Amino acid sequence: MANIKSQIKRNRQNEKRRLRNRNFRGAARTAIKQAHGAVSTADNSQASVVAAISALDRAAQKGAIHARNAARRKSRLMKLLGKAEAQPAIAKTATKTAAKAPAKKAAAKKAAAPAKKSKSEK
């Protein structure tokens, strides 16, 4: 426990700031998780990413997280959103060829695998 008057005051201030920052960081984390979920299920992902970016900007503005930390997280979200938006176009063409590929792979595995010995042969 602090004995110095200024340090006692500093401890009180730090506790208030910690609780305030906790709210901003928690809101940003929640918004990011919701954005990840929306992007993976592809329902209203654009709006949820915008909300997450807004929460990150707010946390950075209030000093709860560093500005570069917010920028890095926003960049990752935008990259994820870009991949998700580009993927449906790729997925349509890939599904036509993907349906044929597993059958070929399974046949190739069976041909390449050596026959198992029965108990009587051992």
What can be said about this structure in brief?
The protein has helices at residues 5-41, 45-62, 67-98, 101-112. The protein is mainly α and 122 residues long.
Q: Element order, helices and strands?
A: HHHH
Estimate nothing, just give the exact number of structural domains.
1
What distance separates the N and C termini?
A: 76 Å
Q: Low-confidence segments, ≥5 residues, pLDDT <50? A: none
Radius of gyration: 27 Å
Secondary structure: helix percent: over 70%
Explained architecture:
The chain is mainly α. The chain has four helices and no strands. It has one domain: Ribosomal protein S20 (Methane Monooxygenase Hydroxylase, Chain G, domain 1, Up-down Bundle), CATH 1.20.58.110. The longest helix has 37 residues. It is elongated.
Q: What's the helix and strand layout?
A:
Blueprint: H1 5-41, H2 45-62, H3 67-98, H4 101-112
What keyword list fits this structure?
122 residues; mainly alpha; Methane Monooxygenase Hydroxylase, Chain G, domain 1; 0% strand
